[in-house]
Specification:
The chain has 196 residues and is mainly β. Helix content is 0%, strand content 46%. It has no helices and 13 strands. The protein has strands at 18-22, 30-35, 41-48, 54-60, 66-70, 73-82, 97-100, 105-111, 114-121, 134-146, 154-158, 179-183, 189-195. The strands form two sheets. Strands 1, 2, 3, 4, 5, 6, 7, 8, 9, 10 and 13 form an eleven-stranded mixed sheet that branches. It has a two-stranded antiparallel sheet with strand order 11-12. Strand 3 and strand 4 form a beta hairpin. The radius of gyration is 27 Å and the shape is globular. 17% of the residues are buried.
Length: 196
């Protein structure tokens, strides 16, 4: 009896969906949404458009919601698709399909409250063509709101003509009109993000 050994790439454990690595050292705060069809997985790679330095990569489970937070900058975006994960070097083995966006994507703050990101739809992408690729800009608007668990501390400040009492002393009955409440800087604020 003769044993036959077929050459093939050794399969590695399929990574969890999300960030594979970030080599920028910058905070990742801008949204990149990718919509895919089930049946194969994807790796998205971002490369700095100015220096051609690899910036970050994420792993996408086909057909599931995917959001990657990206640092500020201008990035070339490349997708690799396939099934049967063979590791970061071989990706999906010899059958890996690759597609790069024609233009770099820019992730930045557009005004004091808007973070600009992108949404890419790969559901109609067929290997070897770009016709099914849909990219559009998205934005997150941010507002500040007082954290519910941290109400501001209040201090009484004298405002009337009779101010013998120092600030913070309890006013005497009838003298309340001479005092006003002042919020201290210890209040905590939450940033609330929503699509805009």
């Amino acid at each position: 009896m003769v044993a036959v050994i077929w050459p093939c790439a050794a399969l590695a454990e399929r990574p969890a969906a999300g960030l594979l690595w970030n080599r920028t050292g910058l905070p990742a705060v801008f949204p990149l949404l990718v919509v895919t069809a089930p049946g194969r997985d994807y790796v998205v790679e971002l490369t700095d458009a100015e220096t051609a330095t690899p910036a970050m990569a994420g792993y996408i489970h086909g057909g599931r919601f995917f959001r990657l937070l990206v640092p500020p900058g201008r990035f070339d975006v490349t997708f690799h698709a396939g099934s049967g994960w063979a590791g970061e070097e071989m990706l999906f083995g010899p059958a890996t399909q690759t597609m790069r966006l024609e233009k770099p994507l820019v992730f930045r703050v557009e005004d004091f409250r808007t973070k600009a990101g992108h949404r890419i739809d790969l559901r109609d992408w067929a290997p070897g063509e770009r016709a099914g690729l849909q990219t559009r800009r998205i934005a997150l608007c941010q507002t500040l709101r007082l954290a519910p668990e941290a109400p501001p501390a209040l201090t009484l400040v004298p405002t009337g003509p009779d101010t013998e009492q120092s600030a913070g002393d309890a006013p005497k009955y009838g003298d309340l009109w001479r005092y006003r409440h002042v919020a201290q800087d210890r209040a905590r604020w939450d940033v609330e993000s929503r699509p805009c």
